[in-house]
Amino acid sequence: MNTHKTLLTALLVPLGALLAVAPAASATALPAPAAASAFAGAAAPAGPEAAAAAALGSPEAALGRVAHPLRTTEPHGGLADLRPFGRMVGDARVVGLGEATHSSHEFFTVKHRVLRYLVEKKGFRAFALEAPWSTGLRLDAYLLRGEGDLQQIMDEEFQGTYRWWNNAEYRDLLQWMRMYNVRHPKDPVRFVGDDGGFAGAELYDKVGAYAAASRPELAPRLTELYRGLRPATDAETYVGDYLSKPMAERQELAERTGRALDLLKRRSGTGADTDAHAWAVQHATAIHQMTTLYAFDWDDPQGIADGMLHRDRIMAENVAWWQQRTGDKMVLSAHNSHVALRTYVPGHYPKVQGHFLRERLGGGYLSVGLTFDRGSFNAFGQDGAVRHFTVGPAGPGTAEHTLDRVRYRDFVVDLRDAPAAARAWLAVPRTVKNIGATYPGIADAPQIRLAETHDVVIHLQRVEAAHMLE
Question: Strand, coil or helix: what is 390?
């Protein structure tokens, strides 16, 4: 088994820029000076933008005039300081909240705080996470009806790379959502998994139950097409075994799930059956999304890019389907590089979830990047073990170096309303921290134009590693 297959088998599903071989490096925590140098980009080239910035004032001063301080990054307490953020959200139906690392405490707690505000003040009613569709169904059942034990669900669902979500911060967020629903049973907050890295047994059961009740003539054929696919092990073992199958077999399985989906789509529901049919088709779609993802050739660079394009497209499609089917306004949680309006890493991510959502929803989608200057996070080391890493202050020329010189420690700023001096700075490519599930990685410090990549930025001076539960 070569490197790409080993990574996929070990990590359940690729997140971050993981799929090409990362350069060899120590898996121990990096000292702050060495870590800082990894993100110290060259100073921006001189030109018309630099001249405009010099004439109109520094970009940090310009951003400071339109930035709004955050009272705290913790989820509890008053929310009045988020009112400016509410104005930035406006009429958006989906708000993408990013993260510069997959496992820092403050990124999760800020998302919790923003979710609280958007639920209580702006009528948002769904939280979508970079997790499998079937995971979302289990957590949604817990939030709506208290089905199952929350920690058991998290332990079983958040495996492999998804283990980053098995943390105390997300447990607190989910517990808050459950308590909200207990108090508001007729107006609940829902949970959505939008990713395609696993298709749990409940999807096959739900499709089968629908066919037995409403399309009995299809039931035998669906059973045959899904033969051998319904998981009978834990998610990490299932995906590892699946990826050990020969490419031809994985492609044949994807073709079978496509035929099953076509069978369900061929005859639409009518009357009382309309809603049940739509959900059955979506569950079958999620199964097909997984088999298609693993039918790409992960040994070939072009196959990797094609697979990542598929992944970001289906994540966007699942979010848009839920939003349009239910009418819920949604918070979408994922890495910065997935909620962005333009790709951070074109070679591996030709087009990302946020780009697809902007095309589909227009101004109904808002992209919010979360950045930080220094601090710690959890990630896989080069040996595949979970490690604790620390990085020092961002170097001159990087986006975070300037953002951290805005007059507030932690703040939110609408890049669309930035003054001229800031707009000139935002239009130039800047190096940013972009830490995925493995560190060091191949795309930890890409260059992006912030003005084209996010609508809003929440910048935090310092973050600490999240509190893992397993």
Answer: strand
Closest CA to 15 of 139, 99, 130: 130
Looking at residue 243, the DSSP 8-state letter turns out to be H
**pLDDT tens by residue, 124-166:** 999 999 999 999 999 999 999 999 999 999 999 999 889 999 9
Instruction: Find out whether 463 and 106 touch, Cβ atoms under 8 Å.
Output: yes
Tell me whether strands 365-380 and 386-391 are parallel, antiparallel or unpaired: antiparallel
Q: How far apart are CA 214 and CA 219, in angstroms?
A: 9
Model confidence pTM above 0.70: yes
Q: H or E stretch including 95?
A: strand 94-97
Rounded to whole angstroms, the maximal C-alpha distance in the chain is 74
Instruction: Give the residue carrying structure tokens 């703040």.
Output: 411
- The rounded distance, in Å, linking the Cα atoms of 19 and 452 is 25
Half-sphere exposure of residue 301: CA atoms within 13 angstroms, side-chain side: 5
φ, ψ dihedrals at 372, nearest 5°: -150, 155
* Angle value at C-alpha 207, between 203 and 210, nearest 5 degrees: 140
Nearest to 111 by CA among 96, 125, 133: 96
Alpha carbon of 443 to those of 95, 164, 277, 321, 416: distances in Å?
Answer: 25, 19, 42, 31, 26
DSSP secondary structure, 395-437, as one string: PTTBHHHHHTTSSSSSEEEEGGG--HHHHHHHTS-EE-----S
- Provide mean pLDDT across the span 96-106: 98
Q: What is the mean pLDDT of residues 66-78?
A: 97
Checking if the pLDDT of 76 tops 50, the result is yes
Map tokens 């959505």 to a residue.
192
CA 463 to centroid of chain Cα atoms: 19
Amino acid at 247: M
* Region of poorest pLDDT, from 30-44, 71-85, 160-174, 329-343: 30-44
Q: Where are the beta strands (DSSP E) in 248-392?
A: 329-333, 365-380, 386-391
CA distances 147 to 136, 162, 180, 204, Å, are 13, 21, 15, 19
User: Which of 7, 339, 286, 238 shows the shortest CA–CA distance to 136?
Assistant: 286
Write b or e for each residue in 154-189: b if 16 or more Cβ atoms lie within 10 A of its Cβ, otherwise e: bebbbbbbbbbbbbebbbbbbebbbebbeeeeeebb
3-state secondary structure of 354: helix
How far lies 339's CA from each of 99, 272, 336, 351, 410, in Å?
9, 36, 5, 11, 21
CA angle 250, 256, 262 (to 5 degrees): 140
